[in-house]
Amino acid sequence: MREPKQIRDQIEQNRHELSRLAQNHGMQDYKVLQQSMVLDELINEYNRFKYKKHFMKRQPIA
Question: Any transmembrane segments, and where (predicted)?
Answer without folding.
Answer: none
